Amino acid sequence: MYRRFTCFIVLAALLTGALPATSASDDEALFVVMAPEGFDGPIRRSLESGGQVLAYVKDRPAGQVRTLLQVSTYDVGERLRGLSESRREAVTARYLLQFLEGIARSREAYVQTSPEATVLDGFPAAKATWSGRARGIDVHGVMYVVIIGTTILQFHTQDAVSAPASDMREAVQAIEHVRLDRGDGR
Known about the structure:
Shape: globular
Order of helices and strands: HEEEEEHEEEEEHE
Helix content: 10-25%
Oligomer: single chain
Number of domains: 1
Strand content: 35-45%
């Protein structure tokens, strides 16, 4: 029913290459995210597992890090169905920490906040911020995780610390205004 997506950080897209410009919104079966003005995409990355990552980037002059807005999802099957609200919150925080481990492995001087309970479009979610160094560049980011049915959605933004704060702030706002499918066609 839902597509399988897996987490893949698009660091190469941040640092190199021209990207296609398309509509600022992307309708998936599970979510609708409105990319901020000036963000190019969506960039889709198909993985050998059949998964896909959806990303938008904000261009900067050549050689400068781009702002990333990324959505990854993973359908883990029936084991998440029927979780109590308190158990769902704990599982969401656990998955957030697992995704952040992937960020930590590719960064130097990495630090992160503890997961914080939040809400995305009425669904309980977990959020954390992080900072570190990638390829000699100081970077920072914000990651959110929410569980919808049997699917884990990971929303992530990252940017160079030296970049205008407004770029990452716009990406965070896009995440915080995501529309999630409740199964009622909305």
